[in-house]
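Thread: quick sanity check before group meeting

JM: Hey all, I'm pulling together slides for Thursday and realized we never actually wrote out the predicted structure for the chain we discussed last week. Dropping the sequence here so it's in one place. If anyone has concerns about the input, flag it before I start.
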Amino acid sequence: MLSFTVVVLLGLLALSVTAAASVGILGLALAELYSPLPLSNALGELAWGSSAEFLLVAIPLYVLMGELLVSSGVAGRMYGAVSKWVSWMPGGLMNANIGASALFSATSGSSVATAATISTLALPEQRKAGYNAPLFLGSIAAGGTLGILIPPSINMIIFALIANVSVPKLYLAATLPALVLTSLFILLIVGICLVRPDLAGERVTVTWRDRIESFPHLLPPLGIFVLVIGVIYGGIATASESAALGVIAALLLAWYKGALNVATLRRAFESTMRTTGMIILITLSAFFLNFVLSSIGLTSALVDFVVGLDLSPMGTMIALIIFYILLGCFMDTLAMLVTTAPLTVPIVVALGFDPIWFGVMLILLCEMGQLTPPFGMNLFVVQSIRAEGKFIDVVYGALPFCGVLLLMLVLMLAVPDMVVWLPSLFSSIS
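JM (edit): ok, ran it. Output follows.
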């Protein structure tokens, strides 16, 4: 049954069937073949019940918040300011790609949106300054992955729904790993450029006056991040309510910048509807598949099988990590998250691992899936906006950053307190 499930899902994806349709078709096939009951009759009720989940309201709001910041020009000014503050470092604009991605991630929650936004802003500068194309492109793709790790993350909201864990605690748990990973990305770029100065591009001289004058452009995204996250941990608002406050702040900011008009709103709303429709459809299909898997007993059978292998807990975790790395090469990361988390979360909990810790680990593995060929989504996003050159350049440029993600996984295995320390300080948060 398990092998049939994997083969059918990978086969549908290989045929370029969309992730949402692949997951839904798999659920219907399993229900028809392995259940004596007409499980498909529950599809309508499941779709209604899961889509009525209040926490899902946060998804379109976070997407809209990021779109408004892009449409109003805030993201562009932010990138320019970051590039001035890191111009002294070896690698220059490549470090700006990482720093600006981290800042934009704090207001977007989407990896693809972050990669697309920074690509649009950075690629013209790459051509002017003569940076090595593969490494520069890789820095954009890698920086984009921070969109699903740095709060507020859409993928974490979905994991919280599946695993029945606290979104605020997940956000807290991801904060320190996100800072460490961002620093490691920058250290990688600096190290490569020190060893190979010819890859560092043209050094740009920026005065301290220029940096200070650009500093106000860094404040809007930081301010919105503090507002969105602060009201959650201050006990003032839920994750969904804080997302609404973030949208209001983005609208006021667009109005203040003189960019709030019908054209801006139309672009932001259309892009938000497309992105949200894709995410929600995958999520609803996954809820149905999870219902089928539980009904036919595959979930409990898999847990019993893995526990019965008599591997050590760490051995089992390493096996799961290898499984996710391989799966991320062939499967959309959101689909990978929603289809596998219901199977793997009971296993890791049964082995004594913290589900919050595993949630952050799984998000990191999803990040790697965004960078690994042949189906790494961020690779395609960067190449599509680049619209020239060879796709293999983006792949080569992303490989060193995959190494950093592997290092980060090892650090989290060796030092789990990196993840669970902050949530333990706020044990009263639900």
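AS: nice. The mean pLDDT is 81. The first helix runs from residue 2 to 14.
JM: adding both to the slides.
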